[in-house]
Amino acid sequence: MREVVLILAEIINIFHELIWGLSNRLELDLTDKELHFWVIGILGIIGLFFVDLAFHAISKWSITAISFLFTFAMVLVFVFAVEIQQRITGAGNMEFADAAYSIFGFFAFCIIYVLFKVIFYFVRRS
User: Fold this and answer.
1) pLDDT tens per residue across span 89-103
2) How many CA atoms lie within 13 A of 94 on its CB side?
3) CA–CA gap between residue 10 and residue 87 (Å, rounded)
């Protein structure tokens, strides 16, 4: 778990340094807050572009798939928040296995949900 957080932090740090270096070369004299505005803004709009394309394509197939993806993103954020909180408070161990089992639990319950939807679909159809 610690390794995943460190890798994500390193990716953000590299992008942060690239923008910081670019702003210095262009003599923009950005504060750290302004730099964060640009870094997160740029990463966010790039993400929105790809997510928007993907969701438009998926929406033609299934709204449930979009609901799953959105909920999965929320679960990931929550799982990482719990693991980080455990590290900070010492209330547990910050482990990748804990996060993985959390995600597996979500997938297991999603499979049960989809099975119920499929059964309901076929019962209603007949």
Assistant:
1) 887 777 778 888 999
2) 17
3) 19
> Cβ distance 2 to 94 under 8 Å?
yes
Write out pLDDT tens, residues 45-101. 998 999 999 999 999 988 999 999 999 999 999 988 888 888 788 877 777 788 889
Q: Both tokens of residue 44?
A: 């966010």
* Nearest to 12, CA basis, from 48, 36, 45: 36
Residue with tokens 């954020």: 77
Determine contact, residues 79/102, Cβ cutoff 8 Å: yes
Helix 63-89 and helix 96-125, axial crossing angle in degrees, nearest 10:
160
Number of neighbours of residue 1 by Cβ within 10 angstroms: 19
| One-letter amino acid of 87 | R
C-alpha closest to that of 4 among 75, 99, 104? 99
Dist. CA 91–CA 32, nearest whole Å? 32
Widest pairwise Cα distance in the chain: 70
- CA atoms of 16 and 86, how far apart (whole Å): 27
